[in-house]
Design a protein that fits this description.
This protein has one domain (8-197, 222-304): 1, 4-beta cellobiohydrolase (TIM Barrel, Alpha-Beta Barrel). The chain is 33% helix and 11% strand. The protein has helices spanning 25-47, 70-87, 106-115, 134-148, 198-205, 212-220, 235-248, 273-276, 324-332, and strands at 8-12, 52-56, 92-97, 123-126, 153-157, 226-228, 254-257, 289-290, 297-299. The protein has a nine-stranded mixed sheet with strand order 6-7-1-2-3-4-5-9-8, with helices on one face. α6 (212-220) packs across α9 (324-332). The termini are far apart.
């Protein structure tokens, strides 16, 4: 097992694959699976022998029920299983995304995780780009481990689940495993802070803006994920270039390669697009840190201030674009 602080932290989503309905859809699915495997292989090549934590496909398992027929569902599960098999090594830890506590019941998600090869993975990821309180997600993690019937580690996205964010009650009897001083552990100080993040670039371009100081202190100075997808070009080169910079500094980068195959499985988060997409009144959560002594982690997977799209407090922005309005609202919790 990799010791804390000795690995890259990477989230992976696969390659863009569009289902093409019609009489030849079985052949099309085979072509799509081949393209997916090629993409995953390219990601692994770009990573090389650098130790890594790999979060596989946020939303994929949670959206599985949206697949139009069983062939599409089985294709998705086979793709996810391939990603686990390829990326889980003696030096790399793979986490399959399991949605969040307000989406799919734990027993159903456990069944999907098993079908996607959770047995070979290190664990699962929760709350990516969502707002559920950490204790609520810890409760869901406990339920998943119970239903899986085997101990698995997990990571929780804490980038947008602060005090003003959507809150829920933890299951009765749950004792939070969050450690008050966990941020002083070995991993937190070694996370890579990208000097060319969207937030950092905005601050450099707008030094006299009254919001610049707070954005620097609260967001740009914290380790957040960098997202990769079809816009990234050669995935092997993109991963290798970014990971090399962090590795040369002795730091641990957090990467997200985002490109879910649609395969007729598109849809919104269960909490509803209006509630999820740049809603007002949300707030930064705890900075990346260990959650307990078992290796479970809180990470900033969704970079705070980067818009979900032209909606809510991000009106007029594109998905992934840094918005000082969204960033400032997350800092203040403004409703």
């Amino acid at each position: 097992m990799i010791a804390a602080g000795e690995f890259l932290v990477i989230a992976v989503l696969g390659s863009l694959l569009l289902a093409r309905p019609g009489p030849n859809h079985a052949a099309n699915l085979e072509s799509d699976k081949h393209a997916y495997e090629k993409w995953v292989n390219g990601f692994a090549t770009g990573l090389g022998d650098r130790p890594a934590v790999v979060i596989v496909e946020p939303d994929a398992l949670a959206l599985l029920s949206n697949c139009t027929d069983n062939a599409y569902r089985q294709a998705r599960l086979q793709m996810l299983s391939y990603a686990v098999k390829t990326l889980q090594t003696t030096s790399d830890q793979v986490y399959l995304d399991a949605g969040h506590s307000n989406w799919v019941p734990a027993d159903q998600m456990a069944t999907r995780l098993r079908a996607a090869n959770i047995a070979q993975a290190s664990g699962f990821a929760l709350n990516v780009a969502n707002y559920d309180a950490t204790d609520q997600e810890l409760g869901y993690a406990t339920e998943l481990v119970r239903d899986l019937g085997t101990a698995k580690r997990f990571v929780i996205d804490t980038s947008r689940n602060g005090q003003s964010s959507a809150r829920g009650q933890a299951p009765p009897g749950l004792v939070s495993r969050a450690q008050p001083n966990a941020g002083s552990g070995a991993l937190a100080p070694r996370l890579f802070i990208d000097p060319n993040s969207e937030a950092a670039n905005w601050v450099r371009d707008n030094p006299s803006d009254p919001r610049a100081r707070q954005i620097t202190q609260r967001i740009a100075s914290q380790p957040t994920a960098k997202w990769f997808g079809p816009w990234s070009g050669d995935i092997s080169a993109a991963i290798s270039g970014y990971a090399s910079v962090a590795s040369n500094q002795g730091r641990v980068p957090v990467l997200v390669a985002y490109d879910i195959p649609s395969l007729g499985c598109a849809g919104n988060k269960a909490t509803g697009s209006k509630q999820w997409c740049n809603p007002p009144g949300r707030q930064l959560g705890s900075v990346p840190q260990a959650l307990d002594t078992q290796g479970d982690m809180g990470l900033w997977i969704k970079a705070p201030g980067e818009s979900d799209g032209d909606c809510g407090t991000g009106v007029g922005t594109q998905a992934g674009e840094f918005s000082p309005v969204v960033a400032k609202d997350l800092i203040t919790g403004k409703k």
